[in-house]
Please model this.
Amino acid sequence: MALDKNGIAKRIAQEVQNGYYVNLGIGIPTLVANYVREDIEVEFQSENGVLGMGPFPFEGEEDADIINAGKQTITTMPGASFFDSATSFSMIRGKHVHLTILGAMEVSQNGDIANWKIPGKMVKGMGGAMDLVASAENIIVAMMHTNKEGESKILKQCTLPLTGVGCVKKVVTNLAVLEVKNNAFYLLERAPGVSVEEIQNATEGTLIVEGEVPEMAI
Model:
């Protein structure tokens, strides 16, 4: 059974380690803060100038003045800080973020990412993703494996305008966990109940399957 967005976020939360500073992109990545283990200390950063984001607020407890880069209301943890964009991007460009989690429309087998523009559709701009992909050394992508037409988004080459080149290290989709290396996708884990054959059929890029592929522990 394929994962939903929360399932993808739960799996990615397992990649977050104690002491990490983590940037959460717009979309599925924002859900990761809801699922990080309680026995570790993590600082979530948003490029609009927040360090110390917590889980999403419960309905009725939202504060319209406390938002993430996607303009969603958020909570903050004790000791959280707020600062201007210049300071926020100094943190990103200075490589002070240990893990960046981004959404994507497409990822290619050499680690290119397209996540900001569909030609012919109105867009607000690339935003902070441009700085994140240029500066981050550990990027995990959270995305659906296929589009609404059932076409693969895990590709040999991206067809949409690129955000970054050769920067993605790992992809977690509703079907699989994939490592990007050697110009290919290596299948590390499969979603519960999803077969290797289903993942192969949904992947346009080169997929390497080595030995028995375990199910994700969600």
The chain has a mean pLDDT of 93. The radius of gyration is 17 Å.
